[in-house]
TrEMBL record, chain A:
Residues 1-12 have a biased composition (Basic and acidic residues). Keywords: Autophagy, Protein transport, Transferase, Transport, Ubl conjugation pathway. Belongs to the ATG10 family. Residues 1-27, 158-194 are annotated as: Disordered. This is Ubiquitin-like-conjugating enzyme ATG10. GO terms for cellular component: cytosol. It holds the Pfam family Autophagy_act_C. PANTHER family: UBIQUITIN-LIKE-CONJUGATING ENZYME ATG10. GO terms for molecular function: Atg12 conjugating enzyme activity.
TrEMBL record, chain B:
Residues 239-252 have a biased composition (Low complexity). Its main location: membrane. This is Autophagy protein 5. Residues 143-198 form the Autophagy protein ATG5 alpha-helical bundle region domain. Belongs to the ATG5 family. Involved in cytoplasm to vacuole transport (Cvt) and autophagic vesicle formation. Autophagy is essential for maintenance of amino acid levels and protein synthesis under nitrogen starvation. Required for selective autophagic degradation of the nucleus (nucleophagy). Also required for mitophagy, which eliminates defective or superfluous mitochondria in order to fulfill cellular energy requirements and prevent excess ROS production. Conjugated with ATG12. Pfam families: ATG5_HBR (PF20637), ATG5_UblA (PF20638), ATG5_UblB (PF04106). Residues 206-313 form the Autophagy protein ATG5 UblB domain. Residues 230-254 are annotated as: Disordered. InterPro entries: Atg5 (IPR007239), ATG5_HBR (IPR048940), Atg5_HR (IPR042526), ATG5_UblA (IPR048939), Atg5_UblA_dom_sf (IPR042527), ATG5_UblB (IPR048318). It comes from Penicillium roqueforti (strain FM164).
Length: 321, 317
């Protein structure tokens, strides 16, 4: 309930209301069927040159995943609202994507180079925005991918000094403003510039999300894993119980061999992971976005809005600033 | 030109390919430690290891220290490496077993003398302590079925540029495909996969091939290095400008993409030549495949059940 209050506050503080006005219909339910993604499949392992890493835990969203499960019933309208705002609006009302004016060359697919630009754009937005509710966000690139992939296992965010080269861009975002008290300590096995910011340990569910480009489908794929603090990884049942909002559960479970969420191996780390089937992503993107106006940066945000809400990864409105 | 074989007969040979396996129960899980009899089987290369688990669970049931373990608790190990069950056993053998693959020049006889291939392939089965780096199986085999179908969809998407084929497949045919692979029923498999495959007159859009790189000998974590890239079945002939690649669809300016051109393009350091293996060689179904083989024909004839050709790169010498 705290969450609702917070949303209202944002509504008043922000310039653009992302929540529906009273009495306004939530249009997410009337989107065409093709805008829902979970019809198919994904690859198991491949070589990627860019990994975008979002670590999302309870720290920014105030007990959302800790024992107060009732808050899970809070209607999650943010993402559907984002979709509505994209739906057929004129270019001028779209967020400005100053970095990339060019539209996507292979729309509704996303080329590797454009994916990298889009990831950088999203990372920049997360850093520019304060207090977006994600506990950490990291951009991993090919050269340092192996050493960084081990990181998500820890509930940790890395901050960098401004002077570091861009390709190492691990950056904490909004950490100073998020709620739980934190110990700030230096990570002994990392380079001197890096500090490890760790939330005080308490029972909590941690979800790590990774975005990677599928070399088969040429669209981004959302991978995620979840674990209780200090415990091992959890299974598909827990995914539906804790991660998938109730309103999507039946729909998501009913497609494919065993539902819209599959288990596979993380292309970077090789560890078991969950992922949302990407094979219908291109069709969904084609239905929602307009080929001429979509830049790589906006592509990734639209995509994240589409896919994320079914697995509780909500695009903070601050990212559209 | 002796014995010009058809794609169909190669496919039959691939489906007939078998590996002798010798599977022992992990000594730490056996009441008799290492005195448990091994389970021996000649197992199809295109099959998947978990399909053996019910038989193994029954075979070892009297020896299990943990009698309550289920067959889907079972997992396989080779020399300390937990084997990823979603890969067909033939691929796992080519990847890990280090056997010198059969090639056109070496006959079976003189091959098995020096570096005798480690046959039967000795595996260890466990029914407890599921390793963290493997995706768990479930009691009714849905996880395995799902992984297979996902892989089929990917191959289909690459071949057609859309996954509509597999998604419009009837439920019977969709599960029939998986059953056909499990039961080694080539006729049923061909009937269903012919619905998915583009006709011979119509080329693939891209050819579903994954290339597995050699594993470092003393790697701490033996995570597999896999290379995948969109591979059109034809590429511009050397004299042509690259700008014509997309526009030209007439056969005159294009040449078939071969195993050699793919390897040379994706892994130029390992494959400095398009025609001759110099430092490394490509292995498929336990055999070195010719660098001159057109990749679309390779996949049409020699793909695994999920539609993919998994090439393993082996260093020479």
């Amino acid at each position: 309930m705290q969450r609702n209050a917070e949303d209202k506050e944002h509504l008043h503080a922000g310039q653009v209301p992302l929540l529906p006005e009273p009495g306004e219909k939530d249009v997410s339910t009337s989107l065409p069927q093709s805008s829902l993604l979970f019809l198919s499949s994904f690859p198991i392992s491949d070589v990627f040159s860019s990994i975008f890493d979002l670590i999302y835990s309870n720290s920014g969203i105030k007990g959302f995943y800790s024992c107060e499960i009732p808050t899970l019933t809070t209607p999650h309208s943010q993402l559907s609202i984002c979709i509505r705002r994209w739906y057929g609006v004129a270019d001028s009302t779209l967020p400005s994507f100053s970095r990339m004016a060019a539209s996507c060359s292979t729309f509704p697919f996303l080329a590797q180079s454009e994916f990298e630009v889009a990831c950088q754009d999203l990372a920049d937005r997360c850093i520019a925005a304060q207090n977006i509710g994600w506990s950490a966000i990291r951009l991993l690139t090919k050269n340092n991918k192996m050493c960084q992939c081990a990181q998500p296992a820890r509930r940790a965010a890395r901050t960098l000094s401004p002077g570091e080269p861009r390709r190492i861009t691990g950056r904490g975002s909004g950490l100073q403003n998020s709620s739980p008290p934190k110990d700030v300590s230096t990570c002994p096995d990392s380079s001197p510039q890096e500090a490890l910011v760790r939330a005080k340990p308490h029972p909590s569910l941690q979800i790590d999300y990774d975005i990677l480009l599928s070399p088969t489908y040429q669209v981004p794929v959302l991978y995620f894993g979840l674990r209780w603090h200090n415990h091992g990884p959890l299974g598909l049942e827990e995914v539906y119980q804790y991660v998938v909002p109730e309103r999507y559960r039946q729909e998501l479970k009913s497609v494919g061999v065993m539902g819209g969420i599959s288990m596979g191996y993380h292309p970077g780390s090789g560890a078991p992971t969950f992922f949302v089937h990407p094979c219908n992503t291109a069709d969904a993107m084609a239905n929602i976005a307009d080929a001429q106006s979509v830049t790589p940066g906006s592509y990734l945000l639209i995509w994240l809005g589409l896919v994320g809400h079914c697995v509780n990864l909500h695009v903070p409105r601050e990212l559209f600033a | 030109m002796e014995n010009r074989v058809s794609l169909g007969s190669i496919q039959k040979a691939v489906w007939d390919g078998r590996l002798p396996l010798q599977i022992v129960l992990a000594s730490s899980e056996s009441r008799t430690f290492d005195q448990t009899d091994p389970y021996l089987i000649s197992y199809p290369r295109i099959s998947y290891l978990p399909s053996l688990l019910p038989r193994l669970r029954a075979f070892f049931s009297n020896f299990l220290i943990e009698p309550n373990s289920q067959s889907h608790d079972g997992w396989f190990e080779f020399e300390g490496v937990p084997l990823k069950w979603h890969y067909p056993v033939g691929l796992l053998f080519d990847l890990y077993a280090g056997a010198d693959p059969a090639s056109k020049t070496a006959t079976r006889d003189n091959e098995s003398t020096d570096h005798g291939p480690p046959l039967p392939w000795r595996l260890i089965v466990h029914f407890t302590n599921w390793p963290h780096d493997l995706v768990r199986l479930d009691a009714d085999g849905m996880v395995m079925n799902d992984a297979f179908i996902n892989s089929v969809k990917e191959a289909d998407f690459l071949r057609n540029g859309t996954a509509k084929g597999i998604m419009s497949l009837s439920k019977e045919d969709s599960s029939g495909l998986w059953n056909a692979v499990q039961e080694l029923d080539l006729l049923s498999f061909q009937r269903i996969s012919n619905i998915l495959l583009p006709r011979h007159s119509q080329p693939f859009r891209n050819v579903p091939i994954r290339i597995f790189l050699p594993l470092p000998l003393n790697a701490e974590s033996p995570s597999l290095k896999v290379v995948q890239s969109p591979l059109p079945p034809s590429i511009p002939a050397p004299s042509m400008q690259s700008s014509q690649m997309l526009s030209s669809r007439s056969g005159s300016t294009l040449q078939p993409q071969t195993v050699g051109t793919v390897l040379h393009t994706l892994l130029p350091n390992l494959f400095p030549s398009r025609r001759t293996p110099v430092l490394a060689k490509p292995v498929l179904h336990g055999a070195v495949i010719p660098m001159s083989a057109p990749i679309e024909e390779v996949v049409r004839s020699s793909a695994y059940g999920d539609g993919w050709a998994y090439l393993v790169v082996r260093m020479m010498g």
